[in-house]
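User: Need the bound-state model for zinc ion:
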Amino acid sequence: MIKTSRIIVCLLFSLSAAAQDQIPLKDFLMGKFDYRASSDFARVEEEHSSKPVYLHGVAYKAFVEMFEAAKKDSIHLKIVSGTRNFSEQKAIWDRKWNNLKDLEASEKLISILEFSAMPGTSRHHWGTEVDLNNLENSYFDEGRGKAEYEWLLKHAARFGFYQVYTSQNSGRTGYQEEKWHWSYLPLAAQYLEDYNLLVTYEQICNFHGSELASKHAIIANYVNGIPQEYRSLSFIQKHSQRLAQEKSPAAE
Ligand SMILES: [Zn+2]
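Assistant: Bound-state model below.
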């Protein structure tokens, strides 16, 4: 009975999305749209990425400014992953799920969630997230990687980018630390607010283990598993104002 009603919710959800020209905000937040066809999204230039990547146009503009500033300091930033929609995230999820043959469903889920999000719950859906240079934390511990990471820690916030998956020592829940994942918070903070208002566990469906999303508190622990201050809109608004001032001609 529960399963049937979940399927109906999923079906209605996709029908309502298909019936409209403009992407409903809830669909956007869950990656249920074609970012390649969206006028809000931009294809990243080859010099900024290691493969074809799209980003929200506003976040991309900020990234290019950060890229240029880094270049002046001999730091080369390369986007290795940007926007991913629901089906792209599902492909990652399914591949990892199918590789973990000998585990119980909950164990598979916890294992995948160390570094990968459930489809419909990834910040990468929003076009505000970039994975930079390398997908191993150890890369950033020495040599070139260390210099890149230290540059980002010092300067990225000036361009609106923050490492959201920091060490969990401060009590943050969810994914393991990701030194490569940087979020454009002037947009993403609002999207997280919207997500918390609009998305419910019933809508997280149609993939292996999706029925366990509620039991594992995916929205509370993972979607919201970022440092507390980065969840505060007033922090971001204050910061965005500072960004605007820095970029206005009067401030130059
Ligand atoms: Zn990422």
